Amino acid sequence: MPMFSDYDSADSEHTWVMAFDGYDPQDEGHREGLFAVGNGYFVTRAAAIEATADEIHYPGTYRAGLYNRLVSQVNGETVENESLVNLPNWLALTFRIDGGDWFSIDQVEILSYQQSLHLRSGVLRREIQFRDRDGRQTKLHEHRFVSMAQPHLAGLHLELIAENWSGELEIRSAIDGRVINNNVKRYEPYNKQHLEPIATGTLEPAGIWLNTRTSQSRVELGLAARTQVLVDGAAVESTRTIEQEKAQIGECIRVHVNRGAVIAIEKIAALYTSRDPAIACCIEASQEVVLTAPSFTDLLNASKHAWERLWMRCDLEFEPVEYLRIARLHIFHILQTFSPHTADLDAGLPARGWHGEGYRGHIFWDEVFVLPFLIYRFPAIAREILLYRYRRLNAARALAHQQGYRGAMYPWRSASTGGEETPRFQFNLLSGHWTPDHTQLQRHISAIVAHTVWEYYIITNDIMFLCDYGAELLIEVARFWVSFATYHPEFERYEILGVMGPDEYHTGYPNATTSGINNNSYTNLMAVWTLCRAQEVLDLLPASRRRELYHWLKLSQEEIDYWDTVSRKMRVVFDENGSLSQYEGFDRLQELDWQQFDHERINWVLEAKGDDVNRYQVAKQADLAMLFFLFSKAEIEALLQRLGYTFDLNQMQQTLAYHLQRTSHESSLSRFVYAGALSQLELEKSWQLFTQSLITDVSGASSDEVKSGIHLGAMAGTLYVLQHHYLGLKVNRGRIYLNPSFPTSINHLRVSLQLQSNDFQIEKIGDRLNVAAASTNQSSVSIIYHGEMVDLQPGISLSFALNNV
Ligand code: BGC
C-alpha cells in the first residue's frame, strides 16, 4: 500500500499538495501516472530522472493526439494498432561521484524520501537524502514542471548538497530517443517500436538536440535541451563532453565539489512536432526556443502564473476538506490533458489522459463525463473536443455505410482518423488465452457524441455552433439510429439488436453463434433521445440555415416524420417485476455466486475456468443507471411516456437497486454514475459511492491500472456528481435550474460558472444556497430553484433555504 501522506511544509497549503512519504518501488508506476505533469500539449510521467524503463520505472512523455500505427503478428493473425506514442525522454539526467556508480534510487541507502505534487503551481518535487555504498551522504532536491505558459517547454532543477564528501561530480544529461511503447503488460506480444531516429547534434554555446519521426504517421519530432551547472551559486570551471548516437544524445559535465557545496543543475527542454501550428520546422523551433528561453526560475514563474489564471477560472471549495484536495487533483489532471494549449491539436479526449499507454491513448465515450466541467469554464476548449468528432463525421458516415446503415456511426475506439480502433482480440492474463473483443458493438457511443453536442449548445447558447457543425452531426446520428433499428411486427415496435450496452461483460447471449445483445434499455432510450433532439435542432436553426441543411443533407419531411415515428415506437424491455431491464433476457440469466470473486475482472476469471460471464447477471459497470445519471426523473418519465410506457418512482428505485446489487464496478466509470443516479433517491448510499469513486486513482486499490494512465472519466465524473447531482445544476439556454440534493456530509461547496458574458458563484453554506451574480454581468438571468423562478439581477445575491425543500 502506498503511503499517502499529508504534506505540511510551510510554503504549501494542505489542500493543494499531494505527497508520498517514502520510496516504494512497488508503487512507483502508480505514482508516475498520478503525479505526471503536463500542459495539454504534452505530459511527462513522474518517473525518476535517472531511470530508464525497467520493471519499476517507466519514463514516458506523450504529446496530445500523437499516434502511430504498427503491424503485429498476434494470435496467428496480422493486426494493426494505432497507439499514442511514447516520445524521447527529455528527463534523462543522472550523476556520479569520483567515477563511482551512476546515481539510481534503487542502488542507494535512502535516509529520507518525499515526492510531492503541487497542484496550484503545477510543480513536481522530489526530496531525497541518501548514502551511497562508499558512505557518501547527499541531499537531492528536485523540481520539475511542464510549462503551462509556453506549451513547448519544460524544466528540471536539481539541487545536490554534498553533505560529507568532496570529489569530482560527473553529471550526464541526455535526450533519449531509444524509447519504445512498453507501459502495458498486456500489449507485450505487439510491436512497440514507433520512432525512427533521424539525427542528433549539439547547440552553441551549449545544448543538445534530437530529431526523430514516427514510423507510419510520419510526424517529425524536434527535441532540444540545455543544461547548466552552478556550484554554490556560481558558474565554475567544468568540462563538457558529448556522447552522441543516432537515437540519443547526452552531455557529460564534470565539476569539482567540496564538502558542503550546493550544486544546482538546471535543464530546460523543448519539444515540437511537425504537426504544430505557427512553426516552419520542428527541430529548428526546438533549438531556437531552448537557446533563447530564460532561466529555470523565470520559466517556472511564468508557468505558475499561467496555472494561477486557470485556477482563477475553475477552482472550487468543498468540505469535507480531505476531499477538496482530491477534487483539485481531478481538475488538475483534466487541465493537463486538455488545456487551451490542446485547442489547435485536433485531439480527442483520451480515457487515460496523456499519462500512459493504457488503451493505447484511445478516445472512447469518456468525454461525456468531462465536458460539462469544461463547458462552464472553458467553452472554447469544450468546443474543440466536439470538433474532434465533427472532423471525423465523414469517417463515421463511412463506418455506417460499410455496415449497411445510413447516417453516422461513431467508432467505439477512435484515434487519428476516426476509424474503428477496437482491437480484434484481448489477451486474458489469467488464462493466457486470446479472446475476441466485441466492444465495438457499443453503438451507444454515437448517442453520446450527439448528447455532448447538445449539452454544449444548451449551456452556451452557441447557435452558430449548431448551424456550422452540431445540427449536421445530430441529424446524421439520428439517421443512423433509424436505419439501425428494425421493426418487430408482432410488438409493432422498433428494436435495436446485436449491440453491447456500457456494461462490457455482456457481449452476447450464452452459447449464441452471433455476438451482441438485444434491446439494451440505455441504448434504445438514447436513440429515442437523439431522434427527439434531431427534430428539435431543425426548429432552432435560422430559416436560411435550415433550408441549406435540408439541401445539403437531402432531408425530406418524410424522413423527419419517420424519425418521429421511431422515436414513439421504440421497444423498451421491462422485467416481470416492473424494473427496466438492462437488456432483453438479462433477468433470465443465472445469479452469480459473488462469494467466489473479489469483484475484479470477473469475465477473465470465468473465462480462465472455461466458463462465460454472459451466463450471469453481473455487470462490469453502470449500464442503464447511465440514464438516471444523464437525465432527471422527469426527463426519463417523459421519454418513456412518449413511447407509451409508464414508469414511476418505485420502479426507478427498484431498477437501480436491482442492478446496483449485480454490478462489480470493475470499471472506474461505475460508482460515481450510481452516486449521481441515486442522488435524488438514496442520498447516503449515493455519498458512499461518491467517496469510493473519489479515491479511485489516489488509493492503492487501482495502483496497477494508474501505472498506464489516470482514469480521466472517473476523475471528472466525481466533479460531475458534485455539480449536476448534489448541487443539481442544469443550464438550459440562459436559464439556471437548481435542484440541490446534498448529502449531510457536504458542509460547504462553492463553484464559479461563466455563462456567455455573465459570471456566477453558487455556494452552499450550512443550510443555505447562495447564488451570486457578478456586478459586471450584462443581463439578468432566471434562476429556477426547485421549480420556482426568480430573476437574478447583476450584482445581486439570492439565498435559498435548503431545509425547506
Ligand atoms: C469501460 C468503458 C470506458 C473505457 C475507457 C472501459 O473499461 O468499460 O466504458 O469507456 O474503459 O475509459
Automatic annotation (TrEMBL):
<feature type="domain" description="Glycoside hydrolase family 65 central catalytic">
    <location>
        <begin position="328"/>
        <end position="719"/>
    </location>
</feature>
<dbReference type="GO" id="GO:0030246">
    <property type="term" value="F:carbohydrate binding"/>
</dbReference>
<feature type="binding site">
    <location>
        <begin position="620"/>
        <end position="621"/>
    </location>
    <ligand>
        <name>substrate</name>
    </ligand>
</feature>
<dbReference type="InterPro" id="IPR008928">
    <property type="entry name" value="6-hairpin_glycosidase_sf"/>
</dbReference>
<dbReference type="InterPro" id="IPR012341">
    <property type="entry name" value="6hp_glycosidase-like_sf"/>
</dbReference>
<feature type="domain" description="Glycoside hydrolase family 65 N-terminal">
    <location>
        <begin position="21"/>
        <end position="275"/>
    </location>
</feature>
<dbReference type="GO" id="GO:0016757">
    <property type="term" value="F:glycosyltransferase activity"/>
</dbReference>
<dbReference type="InterPro" id="IPR037018">
    <property type="entry name" value="GH65_N"/>
</dbReference>
<keyword id="KW-0328">Glycosyltransferase</keyword>
<keyword id="KW-0808">Transferase</keyword>
<protein>
    <submittedName>
        <fullName>Trehalose/maltose hydrolase or phosphorylase</fullName>
    </submittedName>
</protein>
<dbReference type="InterPro" id="IPR005195">
    <property type="entry name" value="Glyco_hydro_65_M"/>
</dbReference>
<dbReference type="InterPro" id="IPR017045">
    <property type="entry name" value="Malt_Pase/Glycosyl_Hdrlase"/>
</dbReference>
<dbReference type="InterPro" id="IPR011013">
    <property type="entry name" value="Gal_mutarotase_sf_dom"/>
</dbReference>
<feature type="binding site">
    <location>
        <begin position="365"/>
        <end position="366"/>
    </location>
    <ligand>
        <name>substrate</name>
    </ligand>
</feature>
<dbReference type="GO" id="GO:0005975">
    <property type="term" value="P:carbohydrate metabolic process"/>
</dbReference>
<keyword id="KW-0378">Hydrolase</keyword>
<dbReference type="InterPro" id="IPR005196">
    <property type="entry name" value="Glyco_hydro_65_N"/>
</dbReference>
<dbReference type="GO" id="GO:0004553">
    <property type="term" value="F:hydrolase activity, hydrolyzing O-glycosyl compounds"/>
</dbReference>
<feature type="active site" description="Proton donor">
    <location>
        <position position="504"/>
    </location>
</feature>
<comment type="similarity">
    <text>Belongs to the glycosyl hydrolase 65 family.</text>
</comment>
<dbReference type="Pfam" id="PF03636">
    <property type="entry name" value="Glyco_hydro_65N"/>
</dbReference>
<dbReference type="Pfam" id="PF03632">
    <property type="entry name" value="Glyco_hydro_65m"/>
</dbReference>
